[in-house]
Amino acid sequence: MIYKPYGYLSQFVNNGQKQNSKKLLGELHDFPENTMSIGRLDEKSEGLLLLTTDGKMSNHINSNKIEKEYYALVDGEITEDAINKMKTGVHIGINGKKYKTKPCNAFKLLQEPDLPVRQKKIRDLRHGPVSWVSITLKEGKFRQVRKMTSEVGFPTLRLVRVRVGNINLGTMNIGSYKEIDFFDL
What we know:
By secondary structure, this protein is an alpha+beta fold. It has three helices and twelve strands; from the N terminus they run E-E-E-E-E-H-E-H-E-E-E-E-H-E-E. The longest helix is centred in the middle third of the chain and has 9 residues, at 80-88. The protein is globular, with a radius of gyration of 16 Å.
C-alpha cells in the first residue's frame, strides 16, 4: 500500500504525449517489476492506493464487493439533505451519459480528520466555510466522489481515500509505502 501524493498519476509508465510531464508512482520508490495500481486515484486526489503484481487480486478488489471509503473536504457547510441525496444516489455524467450512482454510506465528519498537510495549499476559511464528509462506495466510476459532491452543491476541494475493504490508511505519511497482506480484505 502507498499513500499516493497529490499531483501524481496512479500509474508507472506514460501512456501518451500529454502525460510526459506528469509525475508517476514509479518515481517515488523502486517497486518490483510489473507492479500495477489496483484502481486509480486521479491526479488531484490522494490517499490509500493498493499495488500488486497479481491481476486476479486487482480484479477482486476493483469489484463491487469491496468498499472504498473517502474523506472529502467540500466547499460550504454540507447539509443533511445533500448527504441524504448522495446516500440514495445522484445523477452524474459518465462518458457523456447520465448515470445514477448506487446507494452509498455518507455522513458529515464532526471534526477535521487527522491527515498530513497536503503539499499544494488548499484555500482557507477566509473564502467561506468548508466541511468534511465521509463517503463509502462499492463502485468506482471516473471522478465519482467529486461529481457526487458537486451534484449536490458542495464541490470537493480535497479528496483522500482512507480505506479499501479492511485496509486503512492509518497514520502513513504522504508518499510512504509498506507491504501488507491482502488476505485481510
